From TrEMBL:
Signal peptide residue numbers: none
Location of the Beta-galactosidase trimerisation domain: 396-484
CDD domains for this protein: A4_beta-galactosidase_middle_domain
Record-given protein name: Family 10 glycosylhydrolase
SUPFAM superfamilies assigned to the protein according to its UniProt record, in alphabetical order: (Trans)glycosidases (SSF51445), Class I glutamine amidotransferase-like (SSF52317)
């Protein structure tokens, strides 16, 4: 059946070639591959996986073609072969798009001796040997190696091979470089010495982030121009993941990144399966209509770097299918062209095959949602990759709570808060947008006046975009509170008491109080605001005989307010998102879901009934709505790798019928099977049977 899906050749070697590059095979070659690997095997993989695009190792650290660029290290096993050229020719014979891969993060001894200024220097003044392979040297990403040497490599590849683009991995550097050029350049640009810490209180650290952004933005421009001067349809494609969207100026990405690559190749440690799909939402949060690709490794993604191993098939599929659910195009990567373990081929082919079946419907629709989490790029751009995950815990907690509650949602970047983008949603969630500008606050206030609703938590609006603390949090007047006590914590053994019969309190039958947070802000609510929860004043957690409250509940632990324009706001003055992400207490998840449902002020348009944990995505077209349902139900959902699939079902979709529409057909997209449906109270209901991994239910309107 999959062989009936043809490749599109309409835009081969055209500037918009990437629009039909929807399933990618990446082969990262090892140095001895020229004498060991079988190119015919990989051409067959292209066919079996229905790949219509490929990314192949070409040069940078090692050249897999007979390079003539001085000091460009060529594989010592190359001989008179050209493995890169052979793979390009094989892919083009299948009418595939081709992207060359370069990696400029390390150089060999001869280049380091000839150009010591190309080598990164650590804070103690030592040239940096490679952390994993000390025979070679780590490059300074801000040096002439990237700005003079690598453009020559890109020009050679572009001129001599039939490619559409060049993709760079590890091109952004590895933290602060303390070489003489970086010291003088940074000093001249900022007036600071290079930072010795990554503290958000260090002005040199904040200035270094801006300086680095400028240098690397210039690099993207120059590499792209070098290629286009030879073949105008080609592009330089930086490995620009979701984190990079916070590190670079958006106009640069808009102009020079026609599509975006998410290099998040698999789960590490305790990560939920939905983390792959979150990357898709995050990309759309900034660039709503730009194609985005999820790079998936066929091996485990752990600190121990088993890069030539194979993960079990169900885990590979789960990660890929999660990305497809949230609109990411599939791409798999294999390190080493020799394949001693082929267990990955079939699951990749199955996942790619499912995408090929869904692709026409995906292309005809676009994601829609009533709810969005605001991606706090203004806050997160001050963090490095070590501290960013802790800062994101608030957002991750809200994300997981909405997945559990089966409330479909998108994300919206705080760098893209136009009225048109904001008004696509009825509720915006600010889980902990610490740094906000006055312009962003004004946009949110105007959104509420237009009838939009907000759910806001913890220290949102307490700092400026430059991370300076504010006297009064932005949005406090809108949300209806005054601060009576600054944030404190960590606090143990805290509780919040249910206060009256507010909808936010529902579902806690039998409980007078539930678990509170670990970092608390004292607030007083304005007169017209409800206080569904009150703080229970602190009391000891030891000795056990002393574990009892001394005072009655007092001080708002949730502030809920209705506004004249029809919008609603909820403020939660404690770290509910972060503590839910850490502890996963059901009461915290229910409070988040109840707050969002109350802010929505209506029954959600999309509901799914039945047992199990699922991730939902809703897409709409001119005459249809499609709901993708991704089965996450698995004992390994929060800790990989998944060993086997646990099917669920039956599942019943309930969907609001838009005014002026009637239902023509309900069917499963992958098989075309019609589903019987009923109509009642303005909603259509249809039930699907067993769900193994991923399926899409489509409702066609008359």
């Amino acid at each position: 059946m999959l062989d009936t899906v043809p490749h599109s050749t309409a835009n081969l070697r055209q500037p918009d070639w990437y629009k039909s590059a929807t399933r990618w095979t990446q082969l990262t070659l090892a140095e001895d591959d020229p004498v060991r690997f079988d190119p015919a095997f990989w051409i067959d993989v292209f066919k079996r996986t229905r790949s219509n695009a490929t990314c192949i190792s070409a040069g940078g650290y090692i050249a897999y073609y007979p390079s003539k660029v001085n000091l460009h290290y060529v594989s010592k096993f190359l001989g008179d072969t050209d493995p890169f050229g052979a793979l390009v020719e094989g892919a083009r014979s299948l009418d595939m798009h081709v992207m060359a891969r370069v990696d400029p993060h390390a150089i060999h001894e001869d280049a380091a001796r000839a150009h010591p200024e190309w080598v990164m220097v650590d804070r103690d003044g030592n040239p940096a040997r490679h952390w994993a392979y000390p025979d070679v040297w780590v490059t300074c990403a801000y040096s002439d190696y990237n700005f003079k040497f690598m453009p020559e490599v890109l020009r050679e590849i572009t001129a001599n091979y039939d490619i559409d683009a060049i993709f760079a991995n590890r091109w952004q550097g590895h933290g602060v470089c303390y070489c003489d050029a970086c010291r003088s350049d940074f000093k001249a640009a900022s007036g600071h010495d290079l930072p010795l810490t990554n503290s958000l209180e260090d002005p040199a650290w904040l200035a270094w982030g801006a300086w680095r952004r400028t240098k690397l933005s210039r690099l993207v421009v120059e590499w792209d121009e070098a290629m286009k001067a030879i073949k105008p349809h080609t592009s330089f494609i930086p490995n620009m993941g979701s984190v990079s969207l916070m590190e670079f100026d958006l106009p640069m990405i808009e102009k020079y990144c026609p599509f975006l690559c998410v290099d998040d190749q698999g789960r590490r440690g305790t990560e939920p399966v939905w983390m792959a799909g979150r990357n898709g939402k995050r990309m759309r949060a900034t660039f709503q209509d730009r194609p985005a690709i999820l790079i998936t490794s066929i091996g485990p993604e752990e600190a121990y770097r088993w890069k030539d191993a194979v993960t079990l098939g169900p885990e590979i599929r789960a990660w890929m299918d999660s990305g497809v659910t949230q609109g990411l195009l599939p791409w798999f990567t294999k390190f080493n062209g020799v394949v001693p373990d082929r267990r990955w081929v079939e699951p990749v082919a199955e996942s790619f095959g499912l995408h090929a079946l869904l692709e026409p419907a995906l292309a005809a629709t676009a994601p829609v949602a009533e709810i969005a989490i605001l991606d706090p790029t203004t806050t997160l751009r001050h963090h490095d990759h070590h501290s960013r995950r802790a800062a994101e815990a608030h957002d991750l907690g809200f994300y997981h709570a909405l997945v559990e509650a089966r409330l479909p949602f998108e994300m919206l970047s705080d760098a893209a808060m136009t009225p048109e983008r904001m008004d696509q949603f009825k509720v915006l969630i600010l889980a902990n947008s610490t740094c906000l500008s006055e312009e962003q606050a004004e946009a949110l206030e105007a959104y509420v006046k237009r009838g939009g609703s907000l759910v806001v938590a913890y220290e949102t609006g307490t700092r400026t975009p430059d991370n300076d603390r504010r006297q009064t949090p932005l949005l406090a007047d809108l949300l209806g509170y005054e601060v009576t006590r600054p944030s404190r914590g960590p606090v143990k053994n805290t509780y919040v008491a249910l206060n009256g019969d507010h909808p936010i309190n529902r579902g806690f039958d039998g409980a007078a109080r539930v678990m509170g947070g670990t970092h608390l802000i004292g607030v007083e609510a304005v007169a017209d605001a409800a206080q569904p929860l009150l703080y229970v004043p602190d009391f000891p957690d030891l000795p056990m005989e002393e574990v009892y409250p001394r005072e009655e509940p007092q001080g708002a632990a949730i502030v809920a307010r209705e506004h004249q324009g029809g919008g609603r706001t909820v403020y939660i003055p404690w770290n509910i998102g972060a503590i839910f992400w850490e502890v996963l207490a059901g009461d915290h998840g229910r409070l988040i879901a109840n707050s969002v449902r109350w802010a929505l002020g209506k029954r959600p348009d999309v509901e799914l009934e039945g047992r199990g944990v699922v991730d939902l995505s809703v897409r709409a077209g001119a005459g249809e709505v499609m709901v993708l349902v991704n089965n996450l139900t698995n004992p390994m959902m929060m800790k990989g790798p998944i060993r086997e699939v646990h099917p669920i079902g039956p599942l019943t979709l309930s969907l609001a019928v838009p005014e002026g529409r009637s239902v023509g057909r309900v069917h499963l997209v992958s098989t075309g099977e019609d589903l019987p449906f009923t109509l009642s109270n303005g909603r259509v209901r249809a039930t699907m049977g067993e769900l193994a991994t991923l399926e899409a239910i489509q409702v066609d309107w008359n």
